[in-house]
Amino acid sequence: MPEHPIIDPRGTRKKVLVVDDSAVMRTLIQTILEQDEQFEVAGTAANGLEAIERVAELRPDLVTMDVEMPVMDGIAALERIMAEHPVPVIVLSTHTEEGTAIAFEALALGAADFVPKNKLFGEASEPQAVDEFLMRCKAALGTRLFWRLKERFDGTDRMLRSFIGFMIDCIGKDAAVTASLNRVIDKLNGLMFSLGKDEEDRFYFAACSGTLVNRFGLVDTEMAGRRVHDAFIGDFPGQLSDLIRRAWNGEENVGFEVQCRGAVFQGMLQPLIQNGRVEEVYGVVIDLTEQQQLKDQVDYISNHDSLTGLPVRRQIPGVMGEFAARRSPFAVLCISLDQFKLVNDTFGHEVGDRLLILMARRLKSFAREPSVLFRAGNDEFVLLVPDMTIEAAEQLGLQILRSLRHPVRIDGHEIHLPSSIGICLCPDDLQEHENVLRYAHIAMAKAKEDGGNRCQLFEPSFHEQIQRRITIEQNLRKAIERKEFVLHYQPQIDTRTNRVIGLESLIRWESPEFGRISPAEFIPVAEETELIYMIGEWALREACRQNARWLEAGLFRVPVAVNLSSRQFYDQRLKENIEAVLAETGLDPQYLVLEITESMTMHVQKALPALHSLKSLGLLVAMDDFGTGYSSLAYLKEFPIDKLKIDQSFVKGIRHHPANASIIGAIISMAASLNLETIAEGVETMEQLVFLGGQGCGVMQGYWFSHPLEAEQVPAFIARFEVNADEWA
């Protein structure tokens, strides 16, 4: 692949002018932009007129422009800026959506993009909206090159007309004027000439000079008197005959573009008319090869991702159309890097960029000609593969999954990035082949919803499921303020003493519209939309408040466990938030257990300091779902944790899968050697209880002992259990 060095994503920071009449909005937009090392907000403006002045003063690389502003609105300012100082402008509007009249007007006037503000701010903000906005800003930078080229190409005709006029004006002037004319044509790397016509009605060069003589294919500079057809080395550019004849017939400003000897030239012919007849034809030619190469580079950049070099999303429909025209089934695979945002948040954008490059390189190995791989979003790729069966497409998806599962090492960090793949096959008789991309994307969303790290073929029933997910997201935003969440508590039993030694808090959503919604359904949605921060903080506060009440009432004294999401765990404000909640509720930290999943510790260098920071508060930490994630056993002894929880998937398979029993035994033995308490989840049968007890696991939870209980039911259960413990043993 050729190098295209016009845009360097790691080069100089790009200057941005932020235009908005709201000081708060200017600050918010500046904060978003400066999250990315590529952007620097060089200035701000509060109205359109001020924006025009600031553009002339700062010459920014990019402008973000509000629409509704006093003095001069954004649309009027955009029109002025495009006319006076063309620069990429992204228009942001509060009350309009993409596809409305204002959006079309902005784009028609030359805006590089249009972004509704509600996608960035407010209740309707979309998942990963900030990353998407930053991507669109980077894409807009490429349009600056189009404006530069447009100025150069639009100006070429004007320049050629002016130069020919100057040539004609110089006829009969002294040698100094002619020398000045020659200097100008040399500076332009051009060629100027005049043509006459002999008695045989054939054209000849009356005069010719300039640096382009040989490059344009002419024999030499001594052209005076040489017939045009005989003046060229090799074949004569046939189109010139018709152009010259048009000019000789009196047509003015006859422009042309011609390719010769591997170069591209633009020229113009102008007749010299005296006493009503054409005496000569004057011409000028300049070399546009460099500009054409630049234009080719810009075309490449506008259609390819600057980071990975892959074609961008807008190229997909064209390739799908080509594949559909073959009348042979082709496969569409949508590939999502599920935890890419977490990597970006944890290690920074530079590591994220390098990770994307490496993952794109792995994916390219599956895109053999004529297959095509695209970067379709911040963490999404699309692979189009012709001549496929559904079985072959599924097999290909599984191969890709296995490739992406291998960890990546960057700057000493071992990064595991799970992925989800949606697959849809476009049959040869499908008319609306563009729908297939949407179907593959729906299948990918279903794969993520089902836990990720898997392939999913599209099924028509997914439409209804995805619509439900959208509805859940919309209602989830209102659920906290409507107080629709409740916590239930599942007892943890020490089977050696027959005592309840802990409670795990489990969130439940009682929706007036849908009834009880499972956490397995709404938690992934909360994770993707970042509502998990609000929900997680509510759950932490409610669990601490409830346990403080139980302690104050003297009913029992056991710690309550609260599950943390990966986003919460790596949130720099987590320790501060927990301190505030403990102070507010008055709960002694020894009665709080934070549960993290094993996969959350895969970034060891980040996880270790985060865990030490939490432990400094005096609380307890449990590692949940142990045996299902990616944590390094070499680092396990370094983690300041207190408990290991054996995942219920191992417990359920004790009878039918001997390997599960071996894994459980190994986990219990390892935990004992590290002085960690083990808790087995999902205990539902006496057989499981006996096996776990025999392996040395004394603490268990599951339906054998109790379903999760409402807060009001907990005291009675504990009192009854400890009196009648023999019933469960």
From TrEMBL:
Residues 15-132 form the Response regulatory domain. SUPFAM superfamilies: CheY-like, EAL domain-like, Nucleotide cyclase, PYP-like sensor domain (PAS domain). SMART domains: EAL, GGDEF, REC. Residues 328-460 form the GGDEF domain. The modification 4-aspartylphosphate is found at D66. InterPro entries: Biofilm_reg_signaling, CheY-like_superfamily, EAL_dom, EAL_sf, GGDEF_dom, Nucleotide_cyclase, PAS-like_dom_sf, Rev_trsase/Diguanyl_cyclase. This is EAL domain-containing protein. It comes from Paenibacillus lycopersici.
